Amino acid sequence: MGRQRGPHAASRCWEWECGALTMADPRGLDSVSGPAPGARRRAWAELLAGRVTRQKPGPGTGQKVQDSAVRLLRSHLDWSGLLLEVEGPPCKKLCLGPLIDHDGPEACSNLSTSFIGSALRDHASQLGVPVAVLSSQMAASSIVRMCAAGAEHAHRVLLDTEQRKKLSSLIEITQYLLAHSMFSRLFFCQELWKVQNSLSLEALWRLHVHNVVSLWELLESCADLQAVVSWLFRNLRLLCEQVEAPCQHTDIARAMLSDFVRIFVLMGFQKNSDLRRNVEPEQMPQVARDVLERMLLFALEALAAGLQEESPAHKAVSCWFSTFSGQTFGSIISTDAPKRFFSHTLTQILTHKPVLRVSDAVQMQREWSFAKMPPLLTSLFRKLFVILSPEELVGHLQEVLETHEVNWQHVLSCVSTLVICLPEAQQLVHDWVARLLARAFESCDLDSMVTAFLVVRQAALEGPSVFPSYADWFQASFGSARGSHGCSKKALVFLFKFLSDLVPFEGARYMQVHILHPPLVPNKYRSLLTDYITLAKTRLADLKVSIENMGLYEDLSSARDVTEPHSQAPQDVEKAILLFEHTGKIPVAVMEASIFRRPYYLSHFLPALLTPRVLPRVPDSRAAFIESLKRADKIPSSLYSTYRHACSTAEKNPENTAPGMKVEPNCVDEPLKLLMIALGGLRAAMTDPAQYDVLSAQIAVISERLGPALGVSEDDGSCEASKIQLSVLAPELEQQEQKVVDLLLTSFCQNLMAASSFAPPDRQGPWAARFTMTMCGHALLPAVLTRLCQLLHHQGPSLSASHVLGLAALAVHLGESRSVLPEVHVGPPAPARDLSIPEFFNSLLTCRTAESSRLCLKFCTAAISYSLCKFSSQSRDILYCCLSPGLIKKFQFLVFRLFSEARDPLSQEDTAGLAWKPLGLPSMDWQRAALCLWRQRTFQELLKEKQFHLTYRDWLQLELEIQPEVDSLSDTERRDFHQWAIHEHFLSQPAAAGGCDGDLETACTVLVDVLLDFCQSSRSHNHSENSDLVLGGCTGNRDIFSRLQEMAADLEQGPAAPYSHSSSRGHFLFRVFRRRLQALASGWDVAARLRKQQELLMYKRVLLSLPPLVLVGSPQVEQPAAPDCDEFFHLVNSELLNLSRCRPCPSSPLVPFSLACTVLQRNFCSQGGALSHDITVHFFRGLLNACSQSRDPSLTANLTLTACQTKCPIVLTSALLWWPRLEPELHCRWRRCFQGPLPPELQRLQEAQQFAQSFLSPDTAAPAPGPAWVSAAALHFVIQQAGKESVESALEKLDCQREELLVCLFFFSLMGLLSSHLTPHIRQTSSAKAGDSLKALHVCGEILGFLQKRKISWLVLFQLTETDAGLGRVLLRLAPDEYIRLLPLAFYSLLSYFDKDALIRENAFLHVAVDMYMKLTCLFVAGETSAVSTPANRSQELQSQGDPVGLIRKARLFLLQSIPQCPKKSFSNMEELLATSGDWDPEVSTALLSRQQAVSDTDLYQEPHLF
Predict the structure, then answer these.
(1) CA separation for the pair 916, 365 (Å, rounded)
(2) DSSP label at 41?
């Protein structure tokens, strides 16, 4: 009202808004807008003529002026605007403040509404209309104007904030008018419906909620109900979309939707509706039902069309389906309207668009199972099933099918949901189907028959746990004389006519059922069955399905496709054995198959049954079943004999053992409840845990009820098993087993806590032991141990204090019975081994993390305390049975580690106290309990036993498991603890007590040994493929390794440095290596070689982490001042050099091993004849350190390197290989320490490198320094690393070199050729590797050409032995053993480069060639040539050289062609050579012997040369 308007504008506004009223009452219009027609208009001057004279104010003048002003305002108000603007407390907006003499906001508001009411009365009286009509019309006009203010949102059903404020003010005024009988609801509704398209759904909802006008009144006042239905449907759909859309008014939208649905349900489905209205009685319920049906129709059509996630239609459907919930109908659930509405909705769903025929349903119903149903439709069905009982649902389903045309997809989907979600409905459906069948055969009702078969097949699709399989149902219904089909011929004809009509449409599964489980038919009507079987088999043949190869126990009603017979046969065997176990008789299905289905029985079933295996000493079920079949002549004699023979040879292949099938019991809830009641009775009896008779009787009841709860017989005990298989990494339990075990474990923990509150463990009687033995029977022990593994190893941190106490006590009592319990065979992550029960619990508890350490401490504290208290009066032997030594050692370890006060020596007064008492405290102070136990005299006496005392080795093993990232100690705390443990505790302890006798070297020796053991075991546990992480990846070894480095440094700085190696014992590190290598299993199998390579790799990493002087040693005091490197040289020559490449056979599954070997090879021998860079640099650093301690550094270096030439030449060749990276460091350190040139021997290496580099330059090559093999090695490495053009130029300069240099270079090139085949190229492509091999072969050939050209003998390189002296011995030490063994392969790879004529003239050639051929053949037979087998993607040239078979064939041909041409001297010692080889190649042997004999004969008949 705050706007100023002139009188005429106000009059015009009123005329526009009340035009209808003005037309009806002309007089009212005249009185408002002006004089009647024909009256003279007065001029403005005339109007003012009477105002010229100033009137003097009198006594009542002020009141008169005020009354006149009020009348003026009333006659010129914009009523619609006034209703909208009266929205809040501020009175000034009404422009009526001067007229109302009140100040408060509430008063102002009340006065505003009363003022509007008064004004409306006055105006209505002036117009001559009822005030209710006028106010209703004005309110309707105001609502329209308010909704029109948001017209930019054409499809909006919600109001904005400003509109809600205005509507709230309007509702307040309207409620006032209603209260004073100044408002007409009917007229108001009629005015609204005139402009329904401009209305907002929220405005109508708020009018309904605030009782201005109900939705019923709104609907019944509308003349066009169909338009209203369309408008409501459109707005409800938009509302559903906005409910799911993210907005700030979602709560309002949900409330609106729920209210509208509730109103429509009450309006449309309430039986006793209020029909007092003046419309037809059925119109309003019909409107409500129409709206609900249209919403459901929209949702179903959207589902049928396929909905995209997050689409508006999907949101709308999801929102609408969500209204079918208890939250929506909670307030009206007491009425029958929701149930009637749900029934109606279900009918609408089942009858929606019934376009599918029965034949379509038969073909497609497997796609309509519960799992494949749209989730929205599933949720709708489940919501509908909430209010309706199973009986009502089945009855309604039956009624709909009998009275309507139905949508078979929805009907069958409903059946699936019904049997899945409502177990009570399963039997109801079964009974309904039986009634349908009875009715069908009574009157040959095809509809009932169709319905029965479709419903059964649909229910059977959901699995046997929900409904019997179709095969079982069909056999039960038609396989006996009690079936409805056997009553007459008419019924039989009807049945087979129906089944025949199904044949073109149904799947193969169902026809297989009908053939294999045919209806029972009297003999005189047998033709009906045979005709059908013929028809069905013809159809199966068309579908390419063989009935003869079908499994015995195949699930014929499953939705899966027909399985292959070879995959079904093992399942049939396991089920047949299971049935044989229960009955002791051969199953009927097996007997039938042996007669009627012999192809499947003989070709698939018997081979699956007679799988070769290691036969048990005591025949098991499988063996007994086989013998029963044999006695019944159901196994052919030849097949049985083959099986027995295969089993007799299966001892070496136990993996071929036929697996058994464990059938888990199927418990019902009732036995489980009875067990719970029995356990509750035991809990109640715990008020006096010492009353033996009462507790024993109750435990007997528990034992009796355990069997039914598990579904096993009483005499089925797990103690009969010799071993329990258990996977620590992934323990699994069946659901029923876990329920039973959890009940028992919970009961045990609760009973223990209850009993401990009344008496300590030693006065609780034997109830705990009896209860534990009860859990060991009934095949329950494996389940109990599996559950304990889950709880302790996987869920330990979540266990409460009472759980830990109870499980610890249970572990003690299980250990008490260890003599009668089987061992536990555990798998990963620990090594597979058999453990006793106490050791099994020890393996479950780790100390790797802070959480696992806390759990381990709690469990150890509880177990040890309980044992000491429980068996305090018994002998010490019982403790040895109950507790694992590892458990007690872990407790000592954790107490030392976590509680610094425990590291101090115990005083006499500390060694008293009761161990169990702190555990009974409510707070469960574990630190106090642990320290109390630690200080107890009994426990300290127990630790004096050798098996329970924590030794230095034990401490290292446990500390190595710690993961520093999640340790309970900080880095500083952990280092302090290590220092205390090593230097203050274990170092000073005597060796008999597990200490080191004060010997730091002993401490280092034990540490290295334990560290290597830990890394090796961690490697085998984790199966890591990254060998670089052997030490770095083992959890916790980082800090312990730091302690080793610190102690090694202390030893180095001590008065008697061990690095002099003067002692006959040698350095402790090499002693450890030597002892461990001797203990390793020898052999050439893959596992032994891989383990040795892993061990050596760890040695290398230990060496690299320690001071480099360990490799060289300090120089001796006496002259000559040469350090003793013999131990390192021996390790290199015997082990590091001979690391051979692991070659698993192609069929071996050792892929990770192969990769590990690849990485190991890379870490040691980067190329043939050289060590890796890191170990090479480490040696020379050690050499420089030794020189720095020598009186004559240069002499020390010279003597050491001179010793390398004879004792370990590979060190020098390695230096030459890495010289570009090694030389700068050597120069720098030597100049800094000694201010002089390099020693002569180092200069010799430098000169050899320069000589080799000169071959790549265009200048003349420098002279080669001695010895020749050093220069040859340098040249070989330079050629290897050079490009193709540089190699060609370098090879041209070889012609003028010394013979010895060329022979050595040829030897190194041979090693390079073998290395190109053997050395892994992890990051190289196959083409790059092929190029390396071709390059190596070309270099070998060129060097061989120079040797042959200069007539230099080179055959001696292929006859090297350990007895050789000089150069031969050096070369032999430069090559790994495997390379020497593979020299025959290199020899014959160079066939194309041989100068055959020149070679034949050499006396030694034939002997070498035959020897190489024999060795090549042996290598091939042993499988060692597989290491150099050439991949198919290599070049043709390389394939011809690298293919072992082709190479042997070429070598053989070469020999056969060469033997006749060789001179007679070539055959000397040939008989001796052939005698050592045996019958290796008869043809070559014959050729050799024949040629030798011919030579001998020639010599015999040749005339002597006398002159």
Answers:
(1) 66
(2) P
How far apart (Å, rounded) are the C-alpha atoms in residues 297 and 300?
A: 5
The type of residue at 189 is C
Tokens of 448: 């009932």
Residue 67 binned pLDDT confidence (cut-offs 50, 70, 90)? low
Strand partners for 1170: 1167
Q: Mean pLDDT, to the nearest integer, of 679-705?
A: 70
Distances (CA, A) of 290 to 44, 284, 333, 1320: 64, 10, 22, 79
Name the band, by pLDDT with cuts 50, 70 and 90, for residue 50.
very low
Site of tokens 């459901």? 296
**Using CA of residue 931, residue 933, residue 936, residue 939, what is the dihedral sign?**
negative
List CB contacts of 145: < 8 A, sequence separation 6 or more.
Answer: 80, 84
Output the pLDDT for position 1256: 77
Alpha carbon 453 to chain centroid distance?
Answer: 42
DSSP 890-957: HHHHHHHHH-GGGGSPPPGGGS-S-SSGGGGSTT--HHHHHHHHHH-HHHHHHTTSGGGS--HHHHHH
Distance CA 186, CA 135 (A): 12
- Contact call for residues 1004 and 1068 (beta carbons, < 8 A): yes
Would you give the distance in Å from CA 1265 to the centre of its chain? 63
- 82 pLDDT band, cuts 50/70/90, is very low
DSSP class per residue in 849-873:
SHHHHHHHHHHHHHHHHHHHHHTTT
And the tokens for 483? 């079936």
Tokens found for residue 1343: 């060097």
Instruction: Please give the Cα distance from 1 to 98 (Å, whole number).
Output: 14
Residue 1002 makes CB contacts below 8 A (sequence gap 6+) with: 991, 996
Cβ contacts of 651 within 8 Å, gap of 6 or more: 614
Contact 1030, 1097 (CB under 8 A): yes
* Closest by CA position to 512, among listed 466, 463, 468, 561: 561
- Identify which of 160, 134, 137, 136 has the alpha carbon closest to the alpha carbon of residue 148: 160
Strand-strand pairing, 833-835 and 723-726: unpaired
- Is residue 1462 within 8 Å of residue 1407, measured between CB atoms? no
- Does residue 401 carry a pLDDT above 80? yes
User: Which pLDDT does position 173 carry in this prediction?
Assistant: 82
How far is the C-alpha of 1191 from the C-alpha of 1185, rounded, in Å? Answer: 12
Structural contact between residues 417 and 370, judged by C-beta atoms closer than 8 angstroms: yes
Euclidean distance between CA atoms 783 and 788, whole angstroms:
9
Other Cβ atoms within 10 Å of 1119 Cβ, number: 11
What pLDDT is attached to residue 1093? 83
**Separation of alpha carbons 724 and 726, rounded Å:** 6
Whether 399 contacts 392, CB under 8 Å: no
Higher pLDDT, 114 or 642: 642
Q: Using alpha carbons, list the distances in angstroms from residue 1091 to 725, 1016, 1032.
A: 27, 8, 18
Other CB atoms within 10 A of residue 1207 CB: 16
Cα four-point dihedral sign 1412, 1415, 1417, 1419: negative
Helices 446-461 and 489-502, axial angle in degrees (round to 10): 60
- φ, ψ at 723 (rounded to 5°): -160, 145
Q: Tokens at residue 438, please?
A: 């009875």
How confident is residue 1082, by pLDDT bands cut at 50, 70 and 90? low
Q: Is the dihedral of CA 1200, 1202, 1205, 1206 positive or negative?
A: negative
Residues 6+ apart with CB under 8 A from 678: 698, 701, 702, 705
3-state secondary structure of 454: helix
Structure tokens given for 1470: 């040939």
